[in-house]
Structures are given as C-alpha cells and as structure tokens.
Amino acid sequence: MTDLQILLQFQNPPCLLLSDDLVRFAADQRNPCPRGWFQFNSRCFMFVKTARTWPNAEYLGANLASVHSYEEFQFLQAVVLVATGSFPLTWIGGFDAVQDRLWFWSDGSKFDHESWAEGEPNNRNGAREPCIQINFAENGWNDESCGKSYPSVCSIRTCLILQTVN
C-alpha cells in the first residue's frame, strides 16, 4: 500500500483504526527516518506533543514542517492522529514575516501550497497572527499569534544512499 493510499483511508472513519496501518507501514519500509519519525517523499515528520510557542518549537535540529501538497497536508494530519488519537491545534512552519500575507516556510522552501480554513488568514480582531497552525475549524490552517503554546509537527530531510554489494 502506498503512502497516498494510506492517507486517503484517513478521510473516512474510523480513523483511529487506520492509524495502526500507518505505523505498521512505516515500520515495514526501509525507512531512512529516525525511530518515531514518519517518511513522506524525501522528508521525515514527527509530532511533538510538548506545547511550545512557535519560535521555541524548532526541535532537535529540525524545522517546523512545511507543506507542499494536499497529500502532504493529509499525511501531517495522519501523523498527528497517530500520536494523539485526535486533531489538536498544531504548529507548522509557516510565517508571515512582514505582515502583508507574504508567507514563508521556516525551512526556507518555497511557499507553494495553502490549505487555509474558510476566512483565514485574517489577523483576527486586528491582532498580529503571523504563524500557522493546522487542524483549525474543518481541519484547515489558521493564522495565530506566535506566542501561544501548541504542539507541533517537525520535519527533517532524508538522504537515501543506495549501495550495491558486489
């Protein structure tokens, strides 16, 4: 079963039963990710349950996760679901550095995908909300004050080295 097939199953209840399939799938692969991390394409992702402010959420040399497709966003939600059994508000690596809705990823990658909840981003009540959290409203993205504490999803890049044994 491919990563995408597993993720598509998460769209339909009962999600909690399917989370075990995701864990088994990751364990069965030649996974270049450290223990407790889940691979999607060329990156590894991990849910960090300790609530931290956005600036303090960079974890063990990793960056907060960037998102580059809807499938990758669903995968991040699955990683959160596996760890928590639900969809709590969770930091990812999006940041509006200049408060003009010019969004960046903390890992320096191109901001080429958005999954905002309806009406977001909005700087609610005129407050500056330059950081992105997932699992808001209908499981979309929300802009939020970076000083609030939430769990997070971090990512690291993988480097697969293929060797041929003669």
From TrEMBL:
Keywords annotated in UniProt: Disulfide bond
Q: Which InterPro entries match?
A: C-type_lectin-like, C-type_lectin-like/link_sf, C-type_lectin/snaclec_domain, C-type_lectin_CS, CTDL_fold
Q: Which organism is it from?
A: Oncorhynchus mykiss
Boundaries of every C-type lectin domain copy: 40-155
- Acetylation is among the record's keywords: no
Q: Which Pfam families has this protein been placed in?
A: Lectin_C
- Source organism superkingdom: Eukaryota
Q: What is the name of this protein?
A: C-type lectin domain-containing protein
Q: Which SUPFAM superfamilies match?
A: C-type lectin-like (SSF56436)
